[in-house]
Amino acid sequence: MKFVYTHKTGVCMRKLKYFIFTLIFFIFGYFLVLEETYYDEVDMSFVGNGSQLTGKLILPKIKKESYPLLIFVHGDGAMPYDAYGYYHSLWNHLAKNSIASFSWNKAGVESSSGNWQKQSMEDRAQIVLSAISMLHKNIDVDKIGLIGFSQGGWVLPLVSSKSEISDFNIVVSGAINWMEQGVFMSSQNLDNQHYSKKELNDILKENRKQTRILSTQSYEEYLQSNINKSNLLDENRFDYIKLNWRSDARENLKNIQSPTLAIFGDSDQNVNIKNSIKVYKEEFEKSNNNELTIKVFENSQHALLKNKYFKEQKPDLWFLMKLWFLGDEAFAVGYNDLIVNWILKGLKK
Q: Domains in the chain, ordered, with CATH?
């Protein structure tokens, strides 16, 4: 029997997909209600780099006069304060252990004003300092720590170069050099598409050339000079690369003098973790900071999510649905506990 695809069949398939997605969301909502939440969210806003940034203070439900506080520093992209739900699991573990958190919507995201793609890493570091200043004025804090994800690996060392205000730092999948990371990420993506070694090298060589040319051009010049009109950057992304393509964490890692936890997934396709670990060890040794802890989780990717569930290099809707549905089960075994226990151990010193 031969199956003939008709328009009516296509409509039925779309209805079936809609029904399945709806069912998944209902199931997710049911389990979300059952899951105990150990924190309350409090609206807090501040001005950073000329933008009005809206955020949330994540307070443990067991109230105290003061808390240790962990400030979340996003990676790349248009991130809302909760990173589309990615932070909730960790917030719950922290709050259960009487540790507060703070995070905000990037400029131009949700109710925050401005445009995050007009910001350099220097601008982002200044925003973190503005957030800390606002928090000190409004709440009683025991100690303040920073946790930076991916691109946050450039921001945290910059913060340390300007202030000794953080008592501890956590870097998750920290990048070292913008250009080197771009080459690594592209090579992993192309390798997954089974390009030959020669094809891969030619494409990467052209990518490096284009990025350097891009950094000296105006957007209008870039549009005129690019023959391939199917893969053009929009103006915001163009400006963001132009501001940040020279970013390199080596320059400021030496400024970190507080205890630091660096976490990586062994199957990271976005960041070359071998290089990141090598550089972290070298720079901390140069600055005589022997309080560096490095942990590599097996079978986990860039966001420290389990490989068996998350193989995508770039998150999409399906990625987020899996994350929401799986909750704690999505993360590498021991990831949340490592962060909480490392902070608690440091607070006892």
A: 1-34 (no CATH), 40-177+247-347 (3.40.50.1820), 181-242 (no CATH)
Partnered with residue 293 across adjacent β-strands are 261
DSSP-assigned letters across all residues of 105-138: PPTTSTT--S-GGG--HHHHHHHHHHHHHHHHHH
Residues constituting the chain? 349
What is the rounded distance in angstroms from the CA atom of residue 34 to the CA atom of residue 311? Answer: 28
Sign of CA dihedral 301, 190, 152, 231: negative
pTM value is 0.86
Tokens of 135: 């928090």
Encode pLDDT of 135-149 as tens digits. Answer: 999 999 889 999 999
Alpha helices by DSSP H, listed for 35-120, are 88-96
Instruction: Read off the pLDDT of residues 161-179 as tens digits, 9 standing for 90 and up.
Output: 998 889 999 999 999 999 8
Q: Is 226 in contact with 209 (CB distance < 8 Å)?
A: no
**Cα 3 from chain centroid?**
45
H helices then E strands: how many in the chain?
12, 8
